[in-house]
Amino acid sequence: MNQRQAVLGILRDAASPVSTAECAAKFSQAVGLGNEAEIVDRVSRKLPS
Known about the structure:
mainly alpha; 3 helices
């Protein structure tokens, strides 16, 4: 899965604006990383804000 496509899909499917942390949590679940706080924190630092 392309990371950019995953993020755009999350934003497209969101019913309302999402925070970077919410997007990171959904992204980590979508790519199979799980939803542990440490992983979500690392992913949210990589996403553009």
